[in-house]
Design goal:
This protein is mainly alpha-helical. It is about 45% helix and about 10% strand. The strands form four sheets. The chain has a three-stranded antiparallel sheet, with helices on both faces.
Length: about 350
């Protein structure tokens, strides 16, 4: 018969083994995904789960259990506290796979691997067009985005010398976290704008000088269709400014009208607005679009030409002229009576 102390030791060891085994079994059970979540024939499915800013660990666990993403909210809270993850869980919308264990969900929430959305802004898009893209993509409310484009704090932060951020929203493809605010999207696009501008080797510009350059770049972006013509069109605008001529850009009239027309009526050229460069001398009050790098480069490095006029050939290219008489002949050749193609007169 075993010694009493030895027998107590055996019982104690057995008890420890049973306790450990029980803990392991309970941990494995509560850590595994609920049967309602894990279905082998639906392994490609995923679920979206949102963590709000300032939300408590208890509330997060309760919501996870309510949606049957985990087996136990208490287990979730306990493990989060043991692993000291409470302060590391980030707000956002997360993609939860049906096969995720509770600890795997914790890791996703900790890393901040939120659901992302992608959107692309073509070169030459205006603020309102960008707002429409974002609204239709479900990224942000379009009107809220437009309101944020006039945010004085953003204008001051980037020393933008205009009443809004038109011209500084760089056209590109962006990947953003779902739920990002309009202000965050705008600052991201402006940061990209300055990154591109500073990548072009050029001298120093004051904020006002850069603003004027971006106005020219926006005109080039809306007028040019052929890459090689961008520096030439930029030169025409600079030459006209130096000669005291009105820019007479059809693109500025289209900006006022709020829509693109292949052919403008002569009556369109009379619409009253400070942006109508057929009626007003000098540059318009601000950019009329958001130019890409090629148009910005063209505005920085215009072609060395004497042209003062151009008219659209309606095939994407333009006819450039130095004299007004030559320009009148080009207008007669390429434009129908009563309409105006893209031209500078």
């Amino acid at each position: 018969m075993p010694h009493p102390l030895k027998r107590i030791g055996i019982i104690s060891a057995a008890a420890v083994v049973i306790i450990i085994a029980t803990i392991v079994l309970l941990y494995t059970h509560f850590n595994s995904p609920p049967k309602s979540m894990y279905r082998e024939n639906h392994v490609d499915e995923f679920y979206l789960f949102t963590v709000s800013s300032g939300e408590s660990v208890y509330h997060i666990g309760r919501n996870l259990r309510k949606n049957e993403y985990i087996r136990s909210s208490r287990f979730f809270v306990m493990v989060v506290r043991i692993r000291r993850l409470a302060g590391e869980i980030k707000a956002g919308e997360y993609r939860i796979e049906p096969s995720f264990k509770t600890t795997e969900i914790m890791d996703v929430l900790k890393t901040g691997a939120v659901v992302t959305q992608k959107f692309t802004i073509p070169e030459g898009f205006r603020m309102r067009q960008i707002a429409e893209v974002l609204d239709q993509s479900g990224i942000v409310d379009g009107e809220e985005f437009l309101d944020a484009c006039y945010d004085r704090s953003i204008l001051a932060k980037y020393a933008i010398p205009f009443e809004n951020v038109e011209g500084y929203l760089y056209p590109d493809t962006y990947i953003v976290a779902k739920g990002l605010s309009p202000e965050k999207i705008i600052t991201m696009m402006i940061d990209r704008f300055f990154e591109v501008v500073y990548s072009i080797p050029v001298g120093e510009y004051s904020d006002e000088e850069l603003g004027e350059l971006i106005i020219i770049a926006s005109l080039v972006e809306r007028e040019a269709r052929i890459e090689s013509e961008r520096p030439v069109i930029a030169a025409v605008f600079y030459n006209r400014l130096m000669n005291g001529k009105r820019l007479e850009s059809c693109a500025t009239v289209q900006y006022v009208l709020g829509k693109t027309k292949e052919r403008l009526l002569f009556s369109d050229l009379k619409v009253k607005s400070p942006y109508n460069t057929y009626l007003n001398k000098g540059l318009p009050p601000g950019p009329i679009a958001n130019p890409g790098v090629d148009s910005i480069h063209a505005a920085m490095y215009p072609a060395d030409v004497d042209y003062l006029f151009f008219v659209s050939k309606h095939d994407g290219s333009h006819y450039f002229s130095t004299t007004y008489s030559e320009h009148l002949k080009a207008i007669e050749l390429y434009n129908s009576k009563g309409t105006v193609g893209h031209q500078v007169s």
